[in-house]
Structures are given as C-alpha cells and as structure tokens.
C-alpha cells in the first residue's frame, strides 16, 4: 500500500514515529539442568513436567524442553516472552532462574539470557 506524504521529510518523520511507537522486546532464556537420580525417561518426565507446568502457571510465559530429550539426567528448558518493557522481561526471566536454582531435585548448570528488540530484525 502506497501512502501520500507532503514531503520526503514528513514521510521519514512519520516512519520514525511508527518505529518508536511499536517497540516490542523479545526475551528468552535457555537453562541447562542436571536432574537428580533419574534412571528412565519416565522418571525424567515426572520431574520435568511439574517444573514446566509451574513456570507456565506462575509466570505466564512460554516454556518447553528444547534439547537433551533422550538423556535421562540432563534437560535444557527454553522460556520466552514478549513485552513492551525490557525491564519486565529481565525481571521475569531472572525470577524463573531463581525459582529453578531453588528446586532441590535439580541442579541449574547454566543459564543464557537473550533480549532483542523487534526493530533489530
């Protein structure tokens, strides 16, 4: 769709206002987790599923097991969210990390957080 502007400068100013108005942040975190004494995939699921459910319910964000699905004692969880406020994403993802680090049945080995703005794409 082509729009009409009074001048090239007016169009550029309008584009800049739109870019500033549509500010969306996307944040995600990958958690590398070591599970306790797990000897089967069934036992692994009995630990991972409640963790995934708690993260979804408590923080209202997307979460999934993203890697190491066939390994008994390891899992990698990915969580993601979108917001207009970068600090809200950082705060929420940090709370998820804190929650995971407090769980006695797992050991959080690593955490990698990423944040990008929609205009970066």
TrEMBL record:
InterPro entries reported in the protein's UniProt record = DUF503, TT1725-like_sf
Domain of life per record: Bacteria
Task: Kindly give the Pfam families that the UniProt entry links to this protein.
Answer: DUF503
Span of the signal peptide: none
Q: What is this protein called?
A: DUF503 domain-containing protein
